[in-house]
């Protein structure tokens, strides 16, 4: 069965009850983070603390002693009602000399979440986006004053003018142009040799996600598509730092490729048979993004259809 449901997409699957009504209840939050049932995991510079082969390192209220005063975010409640928090350790936090030395290691995000369970991957992706947003938005966009973190990490508020600021989510069209049994894949110069993926680009003000997809295909590869032909596949939160990847398949009107070499190093049309080889790892030249990325599932959705 193809994964085309956003609720099952990696980094989005099996989310907690976010219990948003708890975020403004300071007394409840303070009690919850010290309760014996609390579940707390650690992040540092966007990376989760993982126990090799066993998922996230989880602790109870004793986690607060590891780095007193470090920012934390309330992520919700699990099925038993236990509150779940993420604790953001300082970027220069010395794991070896800490109270949690030896319990795990901070893992690179992509490789770490690929080994996590669905709920843990969703939690880590959410925490990464929020912590990185706070790290880069310490000042008010209205008056320039310092902001403080409120609503359990889900908002900031200026200490001078009172303006409220909310974490941003940037919509990105990620798309596969198709024509006559072939699809278009491309690669950026910074990617490893042989690695190819769907094309993608940010949605601009005043345009729909379908229009963004058609525009980006033409700008990057010279491929014309009617936005009305766009087929929605699924979407995925992608915390680099705060994108929402919206997957589409569009019917191309031409095959001639005209590359924007500032965006792409290469682009080519491949057949369904080639796409299946790429997905199975048997293609002699090309490999694609792993299953943790929505690009993998867009390609899979198209490749496994009947010719």
Q: What do you see in this structure?
A:
GO terms for molecular function: metal ion binding; NADH pyrophosphatase activity. With 307 residues, this protein is of the alpha+beta class. It folds into three domains: 6-136, Nucleoside Triphosphate Pyrophosphohydrolase (Alpha-Beta Complex); 137-167, no CATH class; 170-303, Alpha-Beta Complex (Nucleoside Triphosphate Pyrophosphohydrolase). It contains six helices and 15 strands. A hairpin with a 2-residue loop joins strand 1 and strand 2 (47-51). The longest helix has 19 residues, at 118-136. 35% of the residues are buried.
List keywords for this structure.
307 residues; alpha+beta; Nucleoside Triphosphate Pyrophosphohydrolase; 3 domains; 6-stranded mixed beta sheet; metal ion binding; hydrolase
Write the layout of secondary structure elements.
Layout lengths: L25 H7 L6 E6 L2 E5 L3 E2 L15 E6 L5 E7 L15 E2 L2 H6 L3 H19 L10 E4 L4 E4 L5 E2 L4 E10 L2 E6 L11 E4 L6 H13 L9 E8 L4 E9 L14 E6 H9 L13 H10 L4
Parallel strand pairs: 1-5, 10-14
Antiparallel strand pairs: 1-2, 2-3, 2-6, 4-5, 7-8, 8-9, 10-11, 10-12, 11-15, 13-14
Helix pairs in contact: 5-6
GO cellular component, one term: cytosol
Keywords: Hydrolase, Magnesium, Metal-binding, NAD
Cofactor: Zn(2+); Mg(2+)
């Amino acid at each position: 069965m193809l994964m085309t449901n956003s609720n099952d997409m990696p980094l989005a699957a099996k989310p907690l009850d976010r219990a948003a009504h708890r975020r403004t209840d300071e007394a409840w939050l303070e009690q919850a983070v010290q309760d014996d049932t609390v579940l707390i995991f650690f992040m540092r510079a966007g990376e989760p603390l993982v126990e090799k082969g066993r998922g996230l390192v989880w602790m109870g209220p004793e986690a607060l002693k590891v780095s007193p005063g470090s920012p934390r975010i309330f992520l919700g409640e699990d099925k038993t009602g236990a509150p779940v928090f993420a604790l953001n350790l300082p970027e220069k936090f010395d794991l070896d000399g800490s109270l949690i030395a030896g319990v795990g290691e901070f893992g690179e995000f992509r490789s770490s979440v690929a080994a996590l369970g669905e709920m843990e991957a969703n939690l880590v992706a959410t925490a990464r986006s929020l912590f990185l947003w706070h790290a880069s938005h310490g000042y008010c966009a209205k008056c320039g004053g310092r902001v403080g973190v409120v609503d359990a990490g889900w908002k900031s508020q200026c200490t001078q003018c009172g303006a409220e600021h909310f974490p941003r989510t940037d919509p990105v069209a990620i798309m596969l142009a198709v024509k006559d049994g072939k699809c278009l894949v491309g690669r950026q110069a910074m990617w490893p040799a042989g690695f190819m993926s769907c094309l993608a680009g940010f949605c601009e003000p005043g345009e729909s996600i379908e229009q963004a997809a058609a525009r980006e295909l033409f700008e990057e590869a010279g491929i014309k598509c009617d936005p009305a032909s766009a087929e929605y596949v699924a979407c995925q939160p992608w915390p680099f730092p705060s994108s929402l990847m919206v997957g589409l398949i569009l019917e191309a009107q031409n095959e001639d490729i005209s590359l924007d070499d500032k965006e792409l190093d290469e682009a080519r049309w491949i057949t369904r048979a080639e796409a299946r080889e790429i997905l199975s790892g048997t293609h002699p030249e090309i490999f694609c993004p792993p299953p943790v990325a929505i690009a993998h599932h867009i390609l899979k959705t198209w490749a496994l259809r009947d010719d």
